[in-house]
Batch of 3 targets.
Target 1
Amino acid sequence: MSGRDELRERAFRANLDIVAAGLVVLTFGNASAVDRGAGVMAIKPSGVPYADLTADAIVLVDVDTGEVVDGAYRPSSDTPTHLVLYRRFDGVGGIVHTHSPYATAWAQALLPIPCLGTTHADHFHGPVPVTRALAEDEIAGDYETRTGNVVVETLERLELDPLEMPAVLVASHGPFAWGEDAESAVENAVALEAVAASAYRTVSLAADVAQIDDGLLQRHYRRKHGAGAYYGQPRGS
Amino acid sequence: MSGRDELRERAFRANLDIVAAGLVVLTFGNASAVDRGAGVMAIKPSGVPYADLTADAIVLVDVDTGEVVDGAYRPSSDTPTHLVLYRRFDGVGGIVHTHSPYATAWAQALLPIPCLGTTHADHFHGPVPVTRALAEDEIAGDYETRTGNVVVETLERLELDPLEMPAVLVASHGPFAWGEDAESAVENAVALEAVAASAYRTVSLAADVAQIDDGLLQRHYRRKHGAGAYYGQPRGS
Amino acid sequence: MSGRDELRERAFRANLDIVAAGLVVLTFGNASAVDRGAGVMAIKPSGVPYADLTADAIVLVDVDTGEVVDGAYRPSSDTPTHLVLYRRFDGVGGIVHTHSPYATAWAQALLPIPCLGTTHADHFHGPVPVTRALAEDEIAGDYETRTGNVVVETLERLELDPLEMPAVLVASHGPFAWGEDAESAVENAVALEAVAASAYRTVSLAADVAQIDDGLLQRHYRRKHGAGAYYGQPRGS
Amino acid sequence: MSGRDELRERAFRANLDIVAAGLVVLTFGNASAVDRGAGVMAIKPSGVPYADLTADAIVLVDVDTGEVVDGAYRPSSDTPTHLVLYRRFDGVGGIVHTHSPYATAWAQALLPIPCLGTTHADHFHGPVPVTRALAEDEIAGDYETRTGNVVVETLERLELDPLEMPAVLVASHGPFAWGEDAESAVENAVALEAVAASAYRTVSLAADVAQIDDGLLQRHYRRKHGAGAYYGQPRGS
């Protein structure tokens, strides 16, 4: 399989996986994968029903210019948002955008998802932030690029490492999640929805519950990430 | 396939699709398609379990007279409501009625679904309205026709184009959705339920959240609809 | 097929149908069917996992004496409750007991399910009542018989015809539903859960919403039931 | 099949069953089984996707020393928690840990699950307790062992028999459930989630509803457990 075919295949599988995980209704979602060496991103074509999607239909886009490199279809209308994130964050290898039910509810409520338990801390190194609303001129202009910019701005304002906080809620819109590759982007999108649902029910039971202590947050996050991680199997095993 | 068989087939598939999408429990729902040239509507037979439904069982009804043109069964008891909408709105090619869980909750709460995010704005050009309650004499008389009338009255009172607001909640009852053909009517019914669920959870998290700004609403709606649309693939591609 | 085999088959299928409809977790539920001519009830064996259930395992019980007439297993521990209902209500041909999620929540909240929409009115002729709590001596004694008695007492106190109100919530326990045969008992149990979920979400959106007007309740109930019914296909068609 | 293979097979099946029951998203959960005679526990390997899990991948661990006895993978990171429970509670033969949606919401809300109905009383002899939060030094040190200790401490403080209260919520984390064998541990984890969901909805409908009377609790618990049990089929039948 050529490098391009393999990249398409990975983006294709990520798009199928977010549907299988119940994160997508109709065509409300898209996943991409990047090949840093080739400077090419593979992304879902715009508005194509998931049932009709094939690996061949995945569109290849030049990360620098934003031009379609290969593909019979128009790429996702959210393509400029993905490009901003790939350009700004070197470590990101895959991006998933959905309107998943509970994460979208937090985004529409204009609220970050508080860190209320260890499931959250296993994946996200603190509360999952929500962006500010876009200004009128940002919406009227190159809207999708500005959406990417406000995600970047949010992480920078909070001094967050994008691989330690691999998701942001776009206000009144929905979540973007990412990871070092497309597979981990999907995993983070699935974890985000589980965590969003869990936090929704928790605040419904106890409106004023506090976030977990920093010690517990660090412990769970570091069980799975970084040099001291001991969750999972050793790399290369 | 003859024109009548094709029309039946489209109505049949739309009825199956609303079940597959989880919008229907038992026999709580029906879908129809219209052939404007022939002046004929195809609709689900009344009270037939979805598991037993075949394309042959779909009933053909004259749009003007309301008489059954062809079919072995009695048409859906909601047939007069569908007829009112087809007669009044030329651009409508398909109609879906369901008691889908979250849209019905808003209808029973006598509340419009506020526009709280871009998923909503992608499909509905503003809040999805709820009708007034029917008066006693409307209920006692030709109830199903009056149900259609109050849907029309609601759109007219709010000066809404039915193709820009392709759904209305009937108070204490449930949603009617439509589109330029049966396929888009199903899509709008699915989007409506997703949006209704999302808004339900949003107001549960933040009771007083405001609707999105008009600029964001217009941007998302116009991404998908009208001359400037750039979502999806070019027509004819 | 003999009469006994047919009766077993109908009870068996009703038990499978409540699982397929998502009303049952683990072994929390049972369905029965009665043969009035033979004076025999067919009911699920106690505690047998649904995956292992066969028509042969269904237990036949004499309606008058409560003795097992035929069957290798002990009948459902709720057998005495079913017997009370069959003895008291001649028109009942099938009974379903579940701990379905939303109906059980209303039962545990000690609240009747208010009639908030037409889905409800299509199946239940008014709010679905909840019993009083059983007294200490009722619980300590022949508990399952007393459970049946309090269902009967509830319908009688409210002067409800059991075929017009084919379900009652047992306080702190869960719903019993029934119908003129096992198939309609299952249908009523499914409708009850849909209505319970819908009402739950409605009061969450609008805590003080009023029940629907009597005119709308009668119209919908009478569309489907009694001499003037016009929903569904003519009997014998 | 050898004893070790059989033990692996039982732990393997328990791990599949919690996924099939919808209790697990991604790799958030693990099940174990113990062979008391051999002093060996079989547990899921850490971080292995459920879709890739085989019986051979199950890891065998010495209950006393905590050393891996047999297996190609690193055992679940929660292994020390399981070991504490097996060491302390002789009657426990299987343990299930999940982040199931509703039970986790109660754990994150730092609230016990009140006993609001008979479904609860059928499985848990009173409210399902929640642990205190772990102290900073407990989190920083041998965290997973301390998690087991705080479960034990909670049962002892409340003077609960672990087989009569076969689940505890770990604060800000999620549920541990167990039983006399792996199969009943799974059953208790499934029942716990159903009960947690039901209680969530009940308090949403009626915030101040009281727990059920002790008489009803005892009756339902004793229908299924102990010498006077009459639910299910006679042992050995």
Target 2
Amino acid sequence: MSIANEAIRVVAEDGQGEPSRESLLEMLRLLFTVSPEQIADEREGEERITALVREFLLTTNINTDIDGGSLAEKFSDSVIPDNPSEVGAYINQLAESVVAHSTHISSPRFVGHMTSALPYFVRTLGKLLIGMNQNLVKVETAKALSPFERQAVAMMHRLIYQQTDDFYAEHIQRHESTLGIHVSGGTLANVSALWCARNNVLRQTDSFRGIDHDGLPAALIAHGFTGAVIIGSTLIHYSFEKAADLLGLGVKGLIKIPVNNLGQIELPALRQTIAECRAQRLCILTIVGNAGTTETGAIDPLAGLAEIATEARTHFHVDAAWGGPLLFSQHYKSKLAGIEMADSVTIDGHKQLYLPMGSGMVLLRNPDTAAVIEKHARYVVRAGSPDLGCRSLEGSRPGTALFLQAALNIIGRRGYEVLIEESLRKARYLADAVRLRDEFELLTEPEMNILTYRYIPARWRKQAADGQLTTADNQAINRINESLQELQLRSGFSFVSRTNLEHTRYGRGVPIVALRVVLANPTTTEEDIDAVLRDQIMLATCYDY
Amino acid sequence: MSIANEAIRVVAEDGQGEPSRESLLEMLRLLFTVSPEQIADEREGEERITALVREFLLTTNINTDIDGGSLAEKFSDSVIPDNPSEVGAYINQLAESVVAHSTHISSPRFVGHMTSALPYFVRTLGKLLIGMNQNLVKVETAKALSPFERQAVAMMHRLIYQQTDDFYAEHIQRHESTLGIHVSGGTLANVSALWCARNNVLRQTDSFRGIDHDGLPAALIAHGFTGAVIIGSTLIHYSFEKAADLLGLGVKGLIKIPVNNLGQIELPALRQTIAECRAQRLCILTIVGNAGTTETGAIDPLAGLAEIATEARTHFHVDAAWGGPLLFSQHYKSKLAGIEMADSVTIDGHKQLYLPMGSGMVLLRNPDTAAVIEKHARYVVRAGSPDLGCRSLEGSRPGTALFLQAALNIIGRRGYEVLIEESLRKARYLADAVRLRDEFELLTEPEMNILTYRYIPARWRKQAADGQLTTADNQAINRINESLQELQLRSGFSFVSRTNLEHTRYGRGVPIVALRVVLANPTTTEEDIDAVLRDQIMLATCYDY
């Protein structure tokens, strides 16, 4: 044990009585100041963490088998300890109570959620991020990272909107322009987009100071509306319910249009709803397109939506939190055709850009869109300043755009192209494997790299193949698939998620419990995919026994 | 150069033409998979980053002298490179363009904002956080970190509310209870608190489905109100303007009550405003207390506010983003007396808890307060589930509560007590130094560890001492202090911020430009404080020449 940690240990043990102020000050000096002792301690801690992380990343099992209740009991003390702990001892404790029982979301066989292994350089750069600890709320605390983040956001803007060199030369670093807002995740990106949309539609007039000043009830009256709505499909992400509530519309203000068997919004139904809104003098704040849906990766007809939004003269938002990176692929980017007509687009960094958790963004076609949410303060983000905090929901926030910039440069467009194409290839591999086996029924074709299917116990296979399953049959099969998913998680060798689908061939009356696989992890092989299915068949044996 | 980086370099250079799919796949394998080559590369990168961070932390200068425009030019390319870059080369580029020009916010002489040096273990734990990359939206992707975060939040709850052991035993891990919401920063914490407050006040009745369902306009009608307001002082943080806009009230719905010379809300004026709101049938969603204000660290009379809020039967929120950690000090916690009566309290982790940027929380006295913002989805956060994403503004988010837990344990309550007491001691030291020198005028006494003062050029010193400054004099002195603050930043040796104060002895008619010092960095010494003043006197010499 190094000198500094020894000193901290002494303070800690001392503390049965009262550690002296001097010993506490010395401990704090060792924690906060760069010194030879601190360097030695930091190295010691890092070696331990590096080993822990490596072991964690090499584990393909998903979980230990400890149940949630027993695990929760380990974390049942609510008292902040009076006395300090030594860093190494605390890391050991973390290793045992937290790391050992954490979910191996980067395992090649954890294919149930939108998680993945990450490129190693984000771990390295994480230290730089925390070491510099810049605060992006204002230039005074992020001199280089502020323009650096603007550049990263502009790169993503260009990927979507493909404006001219002149356009980017003008706006990329112009204080008054906002090509996008970097946030902690897709939900805040969607909320930010809808906030902009609402405030632009219900903006200032000659006789009204704007919704940002006078609020929603007054804005509706001033603009002659009876209410305000957001329109998307039934498969819209639940963050839009948060947004509708937060923005004062209530979830009633989120109108959900039915989808077809492919999970895409029905355009005729959308047109009809728009007409009804007009008739009722409901203000349409925005039309939302999915690219793709969280449940099945379905992509709405974006060009069709864009056309309808233009006709309806309303904001068009695309939630491409998941699917945005299709744009890296020359082959597949046409799946998102029309996205370039969106007024705003959400893309998550911590999904298919393979960045650490805590990175999302909304890109804005028109650099003036965010002007309606601008806020100022006397001590920071003064009017006319280059401070990024003027036009963002968050205040103080980290420079995680460092990860985004690094990944765009190190992986490059071609690297991302290969990543996305490989993911789609693996999804087709799984779809084929499911189709080939009697035990399974493919529920949705993989439009991207998300697949849903279910297990059919032997006694129902004939009826299933003949399309003769009754509602009661489906309900029984549902229960079995629910248990199967839970058993697979508990077994700990592999993991898929589950959802209830209402747009299958069985019709809306019979929601079908589906096993859901997301294939985005570059380390997942065909062998891993086979193993996931094999585990399911094995676990299901009991039902067929 | 290691084998892997060499391979990536080849792919990169190759790319003048077309790197082959095979070489790209190999590059991706090296980036995403744990392997001997990757381990060697990661180590190489880490050594470089460790050296960069150490150099950064040892630099006491604030900035390079490059101007914002020239720096922005370095980040003016908006095209995502087609081809990959080698990690080491990219880090070198970062070192030159970003790290070299970043702000040394952890410097002991950067005392202008709420930034500080951090304890070294957060850099170490950052690697674990990113390595495990858990997603706190749901237990399936954060099996151990979900209950672990609940524990950290409960510890902070107990620090404020001091409930019984039985209370914490019941609620700490109970799925339906929410003792607090961990978010990316204070703004989201304030927004979350106000969202809860709004939805609780305008909740469901026998004949109304609740604001979360039917929206604000309908809620006001159902509850018989003509509008809704938030009430705080004129020194309220600007995040409340974001919140008022976002929640549909408009910033008009944020009523600001005047403050006394100490920057505290005037209670008689508050009572009068409440009466007026009642008379106008305006719904008071919440009364906000500051602890302390961003500009001067002033603390509102919280017990008085609590009493008024109880009488008015409204939600009482305390924004203790900055001042919350006073509670660690046996000596100073009485400054926050009354905070335990707040319905919700915001505390920032990345301020006086010394955690990395991206950590805030709102603590909720009543574990049911957040039930009114609950949202669900079929694929995650199903009703009744233990998933933390049910009752949070954010969706997918990182396990940064790891930093909070670690700091509470490693630093301990006594460690934090010493930190806060040292900060307050240094603020008094600076106040004394300012008072002792003719060149300065102390504008606000340090209630906590934030101090405002200004430079008085020689020709005005007599009038200033005699209280004879005219408005024109003050305007001239304002301009000089503005320039002085900018010059000090540009000189790069030390940094204070500035603000405009309206509650000085000069009265509201004459906003006074103040130099603002925040003393929270444990590495700042009395010598550093002297140097900050000496730099200012030196820079100001030209005005007195």
Target 3
Amino acid sequence: MKPKVSDQPRGCNRAAFLQRNSDPGVLGQGMMLSAGNGVPSFTPRVVLELASDTKEEAITWLLSRIRDTQYNGGTELLVEQLGPGADAQEKENPNMFLVGATWQRLLSGAEDLGLFKEFNDGSMRAFTCANKYNFKDFKGDGDSFLSTAECQYIIKHELDTLRAKDETHVPGLSRVKLYPGKSVIRRLLSKGILIQVFPLHEKEELKRLSFAWYKKVKLSFQPLEDIRHYYGEGQALYFGFLEYFTFALVPMALIGVPYYLFDWEDYDKYVIFASFNLVWCTVILELWKRCSSSLAYRWGTLSRKKAFEEPRPGFHGVLGFNPVTGRQEPLYPNAKRQLRVYLVSLPFVLLCLYLSLYVMMIYFLMEGWALSVHDAEPTFWTGILCFIPSVLYAVVIEIMNLIYRYAAEFLTEWENHRLESSYQNHLVLKVLVFNFFNCFASLFYIAFVMQDMVLLRQSLATLLITSQILNQLMEAFLPYWLQRRRNKKMVRKIHKGKTLEDQELPLANQVRLEADMSTYLGTFDDYLELFLLFGYVSLFSCVYPLAAVLVVLNNITEVYSDAFKMCRVFKRPFSDPAANIGVWQLAFEAMSVIAVVTNCSLIGMSPQVKAYFPDSDMQLILWTVAIEHGLLAFKFILTFLIPDVPKHIQINLSRLEFESREALKKKKILEASEVTKAAQ
Amino acid sequence: MKPKVSDQPRGCNRAAFLQRNSDPGVLGQGMMLSAGNGVPSFTPRVVLELASDTKEEAITWLLSRIRDTQYNGGTELLVEQLGPGADAQEKENPNMFLVGATWQRLLSGAEDLGLFKEFNDGSMRAFTCANKYNFKDFKGDGDSFLSTAECQYIIKHELDTLRAKDETHVPGLSRVKLYPGKSVIRRLLSKGILIQVFPLHEKEELKRLSFAWYKKVKLSFQPLEDIRHYYGEGQALYFGFLEYFTFALVPMALIGVPYYLFDWEDYDKYVIFASFNLVWCTVILELWKRCSSSLAYRWGTLSRKKAFEEPRPGFHGVLGFNPVTGRQEPLYPNAKRQLRVYLVSLPFVLLCLYLSLYVMMIYFLMEGWALSVHDAEPTFWTGILCFIPSVLYAVVIEIMNLIYRYAAEFLTEWENHRLESSYQNHLVLKVLVFNFFNCFASLFYIAFVMQDMVLLRQSLATLLITSQILNQLMEAFLPYWLQRRRNKKMVRKIHKGKTLEDQELPLANQVRLEADMSTYLGTFDDYLELFLLFGYVSLFSCVYPLAAVLVVLNNITEVYSDAFKMCRVFKRPFSDPAANIGVWQLAFEAMSVIAVVTNCSLIGMSPQVKAYFPDSDMQLILWTVAIEHGLLAFKFILTFLIPDVPKHIQINLSRLEFESREALKKKKILEASEVTKAAQ
């Protein structure tokens, strides 16, 4: 099947690696020490950090298992211990290991993973070693065919699928039990032996990327291809969505500006704006699906089949046999999990929502009291008093959010989901609902209970602007400042008195520095922020048309701060070959459905509309409800009518499938006719 | 790849066929004449009827193409001309051909189609000839491994994929152009050369099936497996749905009876009934998805990949290259089709709906006038006059339905859809909307404009009962009566004076008799009927709780009349390996959403509820709307929470995929290590 690969003996590219290692841009000047003395003889891609008190026996076993051939159940990866830094301290953890792989191994890993690469004819096909010369960018074995993100992803996957054989426990660590066929790395992670696995930054590439991305302030698209190249598809999709979302809001912002400038308060103009908004929200969400599948097709994740998901590291249960794989693994009855979800988590979430409602009511009471005090006897101090409830409320909400977040993580962990994806979905749902409630409950109260449109507009503006500013500060500048301090300390420690750039740190120090950086926890918070902004724009758009303008401005700075955060603040994350934005698409769509309801009610409640039905409130409400139902129906029909995948990509996908079927059929007929001939 | 198949020379089972043919149950007594004398030397499965004036040259060419080996682009099927009947007439079409196939050919056809059969371990797998002995019911080559429906489906598929090679037109018929790679049979059908292709009934099997199905009146489930065996999955799914639907309505019927018996008119009881109804409708539709996927899994259609759809016979356009297959075929720009759909069909449908509304208004005017005449001076004649508007309206609606149906078919044909499925979807949508409107517009008018609940209940009962009776008559008994007359005539003609059973007709006469039977046009009308019944039950359930009882009774007789119709009235249809009920699932779900809206409004309008809000209509409406929105949200969440495929089937499916991946991986690693060893 793969004669071309095996024609060349394995490891023949060592010269290339040595040369690569001695490249000053990659590993720093003068770092080419002899192998075994702290610096590896291959391009290091991923770092494994074991607990500093891990027994030697366990380490030896793990390394030999990683180095063993695939035929013997190993991974055939290259792994070496990281030497001490230039200024070694006793506190330093000695058990840091660098992992790399030969090109042969990476290519065969890419085939195992079913990575899609561009074929000679421009279509995307699953990479196979037998066919490698037919792929567009494949020039030799040591070329840039695979991006560093892909190499790291392959190595991570290979490490993850390193399975226990007949060992019953980790040698030297009898408490860490192993089950045949289960992932060793996940077991070590869940037992705390393995502290972390992270991919290394590549200084030169990162410098180029950050220059193209955020260092020059200019009007241009983000370098999505480069982002994907360096961080993988999941990240690139987030930034693609951020960019798309910003552009999609521009028409709404443009239409919103004159409302602000000319102080339009006519009901018919608001109706026009709100209707446009509702249709527009539906259209942009549908078009994003098309856009996202175009990107995913171009990046080869659209039709890639997901590998079998392993249980997440924290999953526990009674030992049994997995009905799918037939392997021994802990099982946990689904019914029990459902009970936990519906009898504990759901009531807890509802209780928290009730609590949040309660806090909100207290806030309104306090504000009413402060206002009455101020109105009775207005002084400077009562003026300040008026601000206190808002500030208190904002602080309490922040604290509640934090506590709830921990509680949600704890509960979701306790629900004991087998798969990471199911864990993520449950966590996202919990956090989403609570955040939605916290952000918008007061606005809903003002809009529908107090029915005070002026106050609604004020609160909306205040909330939107303060949350934007706070977010930008909390998200990027605070961690950066902390990181910078740590960084400087390390540089100072090594080159006492000298002022040097980061990139001239020796490899060992660089690795340790990266190991200490904060871990990027995925795109969750970034999407959540966009989701809430979308809520501000869509839910009450007919009251505050300027919201879109503010969000557009925020998004433009968000691009820069997020980019900066990714490049400078966090550890490099493993790439995540996502094909779409997942559960967030659903969340945004749900928001746009709620927006139809709120906007229709707001318009129905406006005094100008009420003036049209002077005699009968009933008529007014019936009309409002009828129009709302019509809009909802229209939304669903629109969603149904716009195909999720653009025509030309559908054609490409069907062509690939057609070709593979035809080839199979032809092969079968040929074989049958040959056998018939031979029999005659 | 397939050594076992080719070990045995092809055609070695002729003895088995001869024996099969001489079996009196299959072909009738004394029918085993020598081959070539009208009766074929193989089991005939499918009949091709060519136009009686087709040139001999074209027939010869077609037969040789069908008989040619697959290697040469033929189908390797067996085909012979049908001889004259026992009482041949000049009017008879001589160009009737019987098609059959060897078992080898059928098995390799099953592999081509990717038919799923039960494996030794109880799971369903795609059949492959190489693996045939590992399938559960496979005992030899001439066994009952494939059902007759499957054999016929395979033969139809093989005939359909008989493609033109380098011929530019059909020999002898220069007007029938051929394009390389396009289906010959479809071309002949669209040009009217081929009149029909239909599968033959199998008298013995049909007798057994009809006995188990409808001949004994008993309380038991339908023989779904036998139905599937004889008619294929599409039919069996329809009958499965009919049965499921009937059972699902039983709880609603049981709850509805006391309302009728005790004349309950309390608002709270109605609210309970309506709420139960709404939740129940959602639940049964969701559970049907699970049920349907269980059936489809058992029948092996759930995970079968659809073959490439060919353009439908009527499709025309400018010659070009298909972007998927690269073959030359007529192309028709999508934009042009969209224009036709949105600028002609859509306005036409809306116009028809308007017309139907107009007719309805005339009906109400006439009825009002008749009532006023009757009230002014009640005599016997004015009493009759009161019925005239209803009768007229019913007749006009029937006529409009008929005309509209033709118009819809014409329009959908004119829209020039490339695929049969897309044609069907557009047709179903058009007919559905109009029928929905015709059936329910008057009820909506009575309910929401006249707000007369007593009249609503009366009209609902009248419409439901009359439509049921009419349907049963029109659908089964009328065609049966016509068929019976034709049948008797033929029997009388042959056995002058003798009274004999149908099955003793000679093969040639039997085939000609079947060719004259009405063609079964698919499950469309059957589903449409169920859809409208579902509407009667769900839309106004809180007004007329007895509707469910009536529908249950109707469905029980419907099972018998549909079964009877399938077995005795219509030509046998080709089996259709459906995995679900397709667009009808969507239609039923849409109906259940509309039901939430109508029921909430009906309850909100009821005087008892109004009495709860004596002061403010507004409060009442706001509450109604809020509850309606809550119910809709609950419905969507429920739909989302109930998984569409039962857990154990999901596990089975993933296990199959896991096994095939593991096998592939193992094969790859083994090969790689062998090559490495050889190199050393």
